[in-house]
Specification:
The protein has about 250 residues and is of the alpha/beta class. It has one domain: Aldolase class I (TIM Barrel, Alpha-Beta Barrel). Helix content is about 40%, strand content about 15%.
Length: about 250
Amino acid sequence: MMTMTPTDLKVKIFADGADKKGMLELHQNPFVKGFTTNPTLMRKEGITDYQAFALDILSTIKDYPISFEVFSDDFDEMQRQALLIASWGSNVYVKIPVTNTLGESSSDLIRHLASMGVKQNVTALMTLSQVKEVTKALSEGPSAIISIFAGRIADTGLDPMPLMREALNIMRPHAQLELLWASPRELLNIFQADEMGCHIITVTNDVIKKLALVGKDLAEYSLETVKMFRDDAVKAGFNLKTTDVETVA
C-alpha cells in the first residue's frame, strides 16, 4: 500500500493557536494555508489586548485566511464586534459561535451578517441539525466556513466520520461554504479529513510538527523509541538494588 505524503493532501491545513512567534513561523510553512484562533487560546498565551494582538498579526499575515472570534454573549454586541473584526482585513473571517451560552441559536445573526457581506467561520457545531441551520443561514452570503468539532465528538466515544460526510452532503449545493474539521487529536485526523473530502482542518503546532514523521520507517521508529527509554533511564540514575525479599516461584 502506497503511503501518502503531505504534498498529496487536498485538505487545507490551518494552524490553530495564538502564539505570535509560532504563527509567524508557520506562515513560512508551505503546508499551512490559513490560521484560526479563539479567546481561550489567547488567554492561554497571556494576551490582554485583543485588538492590538490581532492587528499586529495581520500586519504580517495578509495573504492567508485568518479567523478571530467574537466574545460577547449578547447578539447585538456580537454583531458590533463582528463588524469591527471584519474591518481589520479582507482575509479576516469572523468566528461566530453556533449558539450563545444560553443555548440560543445564532442563526439570525449569522444570516444578517452574511447579508452584509461578512465572511464568517461559524464554530462549535457538533450536530447535523446545527449544520442544516447554519448552512441555510449562510447560503445567500459570501465565502464562509462551518467548523465541526470532530475531535470533541470523538472524545464522547462516537465516530465523527459519518457526521462529517453527511455535513458535506448538506453543504454541497453551496460552493462558497467550506467544512472545517476542528479539534483534531492526532496526525491521522489530517489524513482522515482528506480522505472524506473535508475542505479544511485546524491543527496545533505540535501536530503540524509531526508531519515530518509521515512515511517514517516503523522499525527505525521502534528502535528510536527503545533508545529514548534507555537514555532517559540512564539520565534519571535509576538503580534497582538486590533485596532480601524472597523470590516467589
